[in-house]
What does this fold into?
Amino acid sequence: MDPMTEWFADDDFWARIYPVLFTPESFSRAEAEADALLALTNVKAGRALDLCCGPGRHAIALALRGLDVTGVDLSEYLLGRARRRADEAGVTLEWVQQDMRNFTRPGSYDLVLNLFTSFGYFATEADDMRALKNMVDSLADGGTIVIDTLGKEALAERLHADSPPIEERDGSLLIQRVTVVEDWCRVKSEWIIAHADRVDRVRFEHTLFSGKELRELMNWAGLSDVRLYGDFDGRAYGPGARRLIAVGRR
It folds into this structure.
């Protein structure tokens, strides 16, 4: 098996990329994003599942807003970070270490979140669909799913923009190299991270979805009234979209 197909299962990957991926600013931003998610979904209370929760940015924010939250992630390293942050915030969540292809709790959640381009990790469409079906199966009747990813259209705009290839994040320099492959079906990324005392180089890849493709997949999985947005603020998914946010109901 190509080691790239399971890059997300490597805790060393997450440890090396953590300082630039999960900056203090990203945690602060998650507070406003949690409020925006609740507004987009019209969820006021109940049980929430944050699938691929990482270090718990949104899971903890939702718990602080009164929801009963389960955070699921494959990475022991990221869950360790999440537990520490929850303790510091004084909130209690359920943390589960499990692969999203295997985690399901039929009819259990009013809100299921899959954020930060965590859908499309797998090398085969069958695995992606298995994960999506698990999300839908875990919804209570009338529940809502939110999938947040980087859509094909938004990435195409970024690739043609004149943005600088180097940016500073939390004291480190980050160089991102992105290559679209397989006829715009997959994207391969290389991040070169220059810290004060070392340089890290990490590679990863994931599947790309257009807005139309993601909506059709969510419809196929059993969701209705799937709506697309260009960011957490509810803007239309069109030119200038920052993200592809898909909201569907069961």
About this structure: Residues 24-41 form the longest helix (18 residues). The chain has two domains: 3-150+210-249, 154-204. The chain has a mean pLDDT of 94. The chain has seven helices and eleven strands.
